[in-house]
Amino acid sequence: MADKEENPITTTGAATIKRNNMRVIVGSVLFFLFVTGLISCSKNVEYTQYQSMDENTGWAKNNVLKFDFEAKDTNQAYNVFINVRNAENYPFRNLFMFLHTTYPNGTKVTDTIECILADEKGKWLGSGMGDLYDNSILFKKNARFRQLGKYNFAFEQAMRFGDKNTLDPLPYIKDVGITIEKSTE
Q1: pTM
Q2: CB 154, CB 65: distance < 8 Å
């Protein structure tokens, strides 16, 4: 009986795409379960929300991510975290964002934030699952919300590269979120 010749091509482009899509789906499910577990384990979390980027286009400059937090206690101190989930193909070690905060009385403040996602040697920081990495970056420690009511946090990507005004869209940033927890200090 003649030996069957093996096909030297082990995967096709379509199979590779399906495998990559399956990896993203499995990673997203694991990430959701991880975040749900963190939330249920932490009794101090007052608020946590994420928004996902378009899988095919990335984070477009005009896609401002908005989160609303209702402050009910002006005496309580809070820790505010910015959460970033990136794919290992993200081409930078940092992420610049503008954070526009609107207070209950209408006052607006804008901060420029740099989130460090990898060390100087390119090793991703945070926790990783597959080719996805999650970072929870402390933005404000022991912050007090001095006004009762709704605070709006709006994140705008602010990455630049070379002579470009902005990278639009910004690839491989998968999710951005905010967590506000009661400080225990």
Answers
A1: 0.76
A2: yes
Burial letters for 95-119: b for 16+ Cβ neighbours within 10 Å, e otherwise?
Answer: bbbebbebbeeeeeeeeeeebebbe
Task: Return the closest-CA partner of residue 97 out of 86, 87, 105, 89.
Answer: 86
Identify the CA nearest to 98 among candidates 48, 59, 50, 154.
154
Confidence of residue 75 (pLDDT cuts 50, 70, 90): very high
pLDDT at residue 26, as a whole number? 58
pLDDT-derived band of residue 8, with 50, 70 and 90 as boundaries?
very low
Domains in the chain, please, with CATH?
13-182 (2.60.40)
Task: Tell me what percent of the chain is helix, strand and coil, each rounded to the nearest 5.
Answer: 15, 45, 40
Using a 10 angstrom Cβ sphere, with 0-12 exposed, 13-18 middle and 19 or more buried, the burial of residue 86 is: buried
**Can you read off the two tokens belonging to residue 108?**
């607006």
